[in-house]
Amino acid sequence: MRSERDHGRHGRLRDDAGRPRHAARGAHDADFAPEGRPAHHAPRPRRERYSGSPSLRSFQLPFPPLFLLAAAVVALLVIFGVGSFACSLMQPHESQPAEETSTETEEPASSEAEDDQPVDTVSSHVRELLQLPEFPSGCEPTSLTIVLRAMGYDVDIEDMFEGYVPLDATWTDSTSFLGDPYEGGGCFPPVIVNAANDFLSDHGSTATAMDITGSTFDEVLAIADAGMPVILWTTMYQEEPSFSGQEIGPYEWYTNEHCVVVYGSEGDEVLVSDPLDGLVKRDRAYFSALFETCGSMAVVIVDSESALDGLLTSEVGPEQLEYADLSVLDGLTPPEERPGEDRPRNYGGTSSEADDEGSSNSPSDPSPDPQPDSDADLQA
Question: Which fold has domain 123-335?
Answer without folding.
Answer: Cathepsin B; Chain A (3.90.70)
